Amino acid sequence: MASVYKRTLPVFLAGILGVTLGFSIMSATAGAANKKHLITDDGPVMQSAKVYAIYWQPPTLQNGAEGTMTPRQNKLVSQLLSDMQPGGMFKVLSQYSGYAHGRKQFVNPSQIRFGGTAFDDTAYPSSQKPCRKHSNCITEKQMRDEITKVMSENGWKPGMDSLYLVYTDIDENVCDSSGCSNSQDGGWCGSHYNAPQNGTQLLYGVVITPSDETCSNAESQSPDAPYLDATNGNMSTDGTLSTTTHEIAETVTDPLGTGWGDVKGNEVADVCSYSFAPFVHKTANLAVGNHLYQLSNLWDNKTNSCVSLGP
Fold first, then answer.
1. PANTHER family per the record (predicted)?
2. Residue 133 to residue 301: CA distance in whole angstroms
3. How many separate domains does the chain show?
């Protein structure tokens, strides 16, 4: 059975309880590091990354409820990914390096780019175990099967330079070995994984959207920020956009679970989850042209601080 590594962006409830979801493979010497300073096991990073969005949103959920995802949210996700093209959005990640085939490599933010999109309205598969306490869920294997199918249909390939993000419909439940997205006792808003495929690695992630504000920025205020109103008309959508950049940054710097994290296993975005200041607009901390975003900050190892995305 293929081994799968995963990291998660926990829901706010887990954050306020001090719970870290998922796991990290870190060395035994990690204890000497600063509380937030990130360390590495010298595993590879993604020097470049083509990011693909798969909108898996059939007319009905597994429980028979009608799907309610709006085309506008998908459009905003695609817009955000397109806005990575200038190369400055993830500038802070240029300091993170790793080793592959004996050679040191650095993340190149200018090569984190939008790869493409696919919309799939194929029905969700029948629910299978493990769904924990839930009657319905999409499992890790079902998610990988969906990604593999869409990749085949579009001629996309796995590899250390490609990341596939799946966006399920609102309130569709996704479960993996550590928990389920729709769960107050261990839920999550986004995850990234890797699994062997065709002699290389399939790097992929899941971004979920609940109907309430569980994963929104409104539910997740940090001490350095006032209550945030919606930047793009809907707090849940803003949360989805923030989760997107969160998972991209973490996959790029820790694709195989042997990259960058702190002594608790938190990755480059985890340690800054729901930190947004400073602001460039009353509700946004990043502007790309006339596009405004409310995106959680990333960790700068050089200054030991959370910094905004952007140049």
1. PROTEIN EXORDIUM-LIKE 2, PROTEIN EXORDIUM-LIKE 5
2. 39
3. 1
Residue 83 lies in a domain: yes
Q: Tell me, what's the pLDDT at 26?
A: 22
Please state, for a pLDDT cut of 90, what percent of the chain lies above it.
63
* Rg, Å, the chain Cα set: 18
Residue 161 in tokens: 């330079």
Residue 92: Cβ within 10 Å count: 24
> Who wins on pLDDT, 146 or 182?
146
Q: What pTM was computed for the model?
A: 0.88
pLDDT, one tens digit per residue, over 149-163 is: 999 999 999 999 999
Residue 223's pLDDT band (cuts 50, 70, 90): low
Map tokens 């993604």 to a residue.
Answer: 46
From residue 282, alpha-carbon distances to 237, 243, 276, 279 in Å are: 17, 20, 11, 7
Give the DSSP letter of residue 111. G
- Residue 309 belongs to some domain of the structure: no
Domain for residue 300, yes or no?
no
In DSSP terms, 85 is beta-bridged to: none
Q: What is the DSSP string of 32-79?
A: GS-SS--EE-S----SSEEEEEEEE--SB-TTSPBP---HHHHHHHHH
Phi, psi of 214 (to 5 degrees): -55, -45
By C-alpha distance, which of 68, 48, 65 is closest to 57? 68
Tokens standing for 308? Answer: 């905004």
Quote the domain boundaries for residue 186: 5-23+40-270
Residue 214 within any structural domain of the chain:
yes
